[in-house]
Each structure stands twice: as structure tokens, then as C-alpha cells.
Design goal:
With 105 residues, this protein is α+β, with helices and mostly antiparallel strands. Helix content is 42%, strand content 11%.
């Protein structure tokens, strides 16, 4: 009998439907740029890398900021490497961790 040290599951889109959270995150992020995109159009962004998707909608110098906003909302934590998300009254405010570190030093 074969034994395994680990078992991996493909959660996203297989065991759970992550599309609603992804759509919400895209919609929130794009709203920061005063943009609205119908969900039918957002559907094509399920799967490809975030930077590739945002590159189709935003200027190149806004892509990293958009990725940070998206990740902060989707994961509601320090998911983006250099961003800290804080929920104030239902709105996400983003502050650079580096700014926070500088103030504490």
C-alpha cells in the first residue's frame, strides 16, 4: 500500500467558489480609480495573474498600487508584502508598512 506525506487540494474554483470574492475585490479596487466594469467583463480576469489583468485596465504606473489594494481587500490582512490594510467603517484604508516603521523608529 502506498503512503503519502501530504495531500494537496486545488481549492480555488474546484472545492470552493472564489469568484464572488474576486469580483468584489476587483470592483472595489477599480472603484478607487472611479471605474466600474461589468462582471461579465471581469470574468476573463479569473485565473490570469493580477498584474496582467490590471494592465488591461490601468496605466502602467498604477498596476502595483492596484494589486496592493486588491490583495488587502481579498485577504483582509498583511497579504500584500508591503501593505497594511485597516478596516475603518467598512472602507479599506491602505498605509505603507514602511511609513509605519519609520514613525516607530
Amino acid at each position: 500500500m502506498q503512503t503519502f506525506d501530504a495531500v494537496l487540494f486545488d481549492l480555488d474554483g474546484t472545492l470552493i467558489d472564489s469568484a464572488p470574492g474576486i469580483f468584489d475585490s476587483f470592483e472595489f479596487t477599480l472603484a478607487q480609480y472611479e471605474m466600474t466594469v461589468p462582471q461579465e467583463r471581469l470574468r476573463r480576469f479569473l485565473g490570469p495573474p493580477l498584474r496582467e489583468s490590471f494592465a488591461k485596465l490601468l496605466p502602467p504606473d498604477e498596476i502595483e498600487r492596484a494589486v496592493g489594494i486588491y490583495r488587502c481587500l481579498l485577504y483582509t490582512s498583511d497579504a500584500a508584502d508591503d501593505l497594511l490594510c485597516v478596516d475603518l467603517g467598512g472602507r479599506r484604508n491602505i498605509k505603507k508598512k514602511t511609513e509605519k516603521k519609520k514613525k516607530s523608529q
